[in-house]
């Protein structure tokens, strides 16, 4: 069941930036056919009418101790009206287990000068903890940001199990992964730093020599209930910190080489910020042990208020559905090797 060639390809692709599709078994990889996506207009009386378009499904038979790495890529453009574009993956498995993840950003209409072509990656770990089949479906979620219906084009994309044998934490056998709690965690002049998403202390087996640390943040401009100049931007710096520790509790080594600063207009509304350190080498210097933690330091540098988005609550399962589910947003995880 292990697909080591996929794991190696995924790590190499992440080192270059973000993962790209690789050859895979038919059950664990699907390409998305190009199609036009309906983005319904905002209801006149208020609220949101969000369309949910399934575009591909994969499945994998897993053992109780197994962890797999899921990646979905979606590229859209040609929007008739500025619209929300969400790349969501919904997974279910044995015993009622489920794990959902969504990454989103507004796509501008095709006559605008920027943000007309948007590519989003939704990537995370699945670990049902019970033997059985895990099934994951990729959805395009979207709505127009005016009262008029819009469309945009899904140009390309894929959904895959990029690694079916991810190494777990040596102490509890769980995957090293965490998501930001629900709500928008604000950053502004009064509170200029948040450290999210974050991975608390974790321990790797002694055979692990390298960590591929992934942290995907959702930055919201003018977070809710805050005065906002819609013609201004917010300036935020993101730094991914990775620490290894010694047996006496002191620091063995640290890395903060992955940094990016974004100046985001209000009309983008929420910005996808992918961070990835693919080559954090585990130190075997005297006193150092395979114990780590990691986090993203988000620093507000100026402009409008902002925030890091956590779990999205009560998303409709389908358009107009009364049944709902939650999907994690900002999150971090580790692919050890």
Summarize the structure.
Helices cover 4% and strands 57% of the residues.
Q: Portion of residues in helices? A: under 10%
Main beta-sheet strand count, sense and barrel state: 6 strands, antiparallel
Question: Which architecture of the largest domain does the CATH hierarchy give at level 2?
Answer: Sandwich
CATH class of the largest domain: Mainly Beta
Q: Proportion of β residues?
A: over 45%
The number of domains is: 2
- The shape, in one word, is globular
Question: Could you tell me the mean pLDDT?
Answer: 92
Q: Low-confidence parts, pLDDT < 50 over ≥5 residues?
A: 1-17, 19-26
| Category by helix and strand content | mainly beta
Number of helices: 1
N- and C-termini, Cα separation: 17 Å
Output the helix-strand order.
HEEEEEEEEEEEEEEEEEEEEE
Rg, Cα atoms, Å: 20 Å
As for the CATH topology of the largest domain, it is Jelly Rolls
Number of strands: 21
Identify the notable features of this structure and list them briefly.
Jelly Rolls; disordered N terminus; 2 domains; mainly beta; 1 helix; 337 residues; 21 strands; globular; six-stranded antiparallel beta sheet
